[in-house]
Automatic annotation (TrEMBL):
Entry-linked SUPFAM superfamilies: DNase I-like
InterPro entries the record matches: Endo/exonu/phosph_ase_sf, Swc5/CFDP1/2
Species, as recorded: Heligmosomoides polygyrus (Parasitic roundworm)
UniProt name for this protein: Craniofacial development protein 2-like
Length: 122
């Protein structure tokens, strides 16, 4: 689903209003006509591809499972993110943004550490 949100901006959304998760990406007027594709993987992960300056930009919006979710749910999310970003040619640009449900503080009861990054060498 996508909709205009005013002043030329477009919201590209994934999820249902009745769920506890969902992601979206707001695209400016400058780039809204440059969207090549939109792919919604599930309520926690989506991707849009924008063509600009002879290069493709892959924007991912991600919402990681929070504390209390099963280890299986966490593993599925991180595996899906890893699989979908691994498919992208190294010459293109990847931006992953969202809520990764990290935790900062003296204790980490109930929290596990997730580290994800991709290094591109050109």
């Amino acid at each position: 689903m996508s909709r205009d949100v005013g002043r030329g901006f477009k919201a590209v959304l994934c999820g249902s209003p009745r769920t506890t998760s969902g992601v979206g990406i707001i695209v400016s007027e400058r780039f809204r006509d440059s969207i090549v594709s939109v792919e919604r993987f599930d309520d926690r992960l989506m991707k849009i591809v924008v063509a600009a300056k002879e290069q493709l930009y892959y924007f991912f919006s991600a919402y990681a499972p929070q504390t209390g979710c099963s280890e299986q749910s966490n593993d599925q999310f991180w595996s899906l993110l890893d699989e979908r970003t691994a498919d992208i040619p190294s010459k293109d640009v990847i931006i992953v943004a969202g809520d990764r449900n990290g935790h900062v503080g003296a204790t980490k009861d109930g929290y596990s550490c997730q580290l994800w990054f991709r290094v591109q060498v050109t």
